[in-house]
Amino acid sequence: MKPYGRRGLERYLLKAAPYIENRGRALGLITRAVILSRRRKFPVLRSLKNLTTLIQIFRDWVNGEYKDIPKASILAIAAAILYFVSPVDIILDLIPLGGIIDDMAVIAFVMNKINEDVIRYRMWKESGDK
User: Fold this and answer.
1) Angstrom distances, CA of residue 47 to CA of 18, 53, 66, 84
2) The pLDDT of residue 67 is above 60
3) Contact in structure between 58 and 74 (CB atoms under 8 Å)
4) Average pLDDT, integer, range 4-18
5) Does residue 6 or residue 82 have the better pLDDT?
6) Nearest to residue 89, comparing CAs of 79, 77, 101?
7) Separation of alpha carbons 56 and 79, rounded Å
8) For the chain, which residues make up each domain, given as ranges?
9) What pLDDT score does 39 carry?
10) Closest by Cα among 59, 95, 62, 75 to 9
11) CA distance 80 to 24
12) What phi and psi values does residue 12 have, to the nearest 5 degrees?
């Protein structure tokens, strides 16, 4: 079982570094996250929206379209996405709400931690400046 929130994320920060250094690995992670997010049932729609936002930021950064974000924030985003796709809690995922609660906690923690970066990203996205 994965621990909740910040504690759960700490281990994944180290694991996420190769994903921000290798475009192919990053795109593979994004693909897995998108597929899994379509399969999972999120009890709170806001959590799905937050995950989608993190995936969009990461995708735009990986593709070189968006660069106005600190590396530490990208690392946190990659770690949250990696945490989400991690099969470690596969048994909990079979129990209704079991595996998704810790994923929601990590996603919420990262969204709060990088809130200013998310706001800047949304402003950039809405402005159409690419």
Assistant:
1) 26, 10, 23, 12
2) yes
3) yes
4) 78
5) 82
6) 101
7) 14
8) 5-127
9) 80
10) 75
11) 18
12) -80, -15
Q: In this predicted model, which residue has the larger pLDDT, 71 or 102?
A: 71
DSSP characters over 41-53: PPSSHHHHHHHHH
Long-range contacts of 117-124 (CB under 8 A, 24+ apart): 117/57, 117/69, 117/70, 117/73, 118/53, 118/57, 120/68, 120/69, 121/53, 121/56, 121/57, 121/60, 121/66, 121/68, 121/69, 122/53, 124/66, 124/68
Cα gap 40→85, rounded to integer Å: 11
Rounded to the nearest angstrom, the gap between the alpha carbon of residue 16 and the centroid of all alpha carbons in its chain is 11
In the numeric block, the tokens 């970066």 are attached to 117
- CB distance 17 to 71 below 8 Å: no
CA dihedral 71, 3, 112, 33 (to 10 degrees): 60
Return all residues near 26 (Cβ < 8 A) that are at least 6 apart. 19, 20, 58, 62, 78
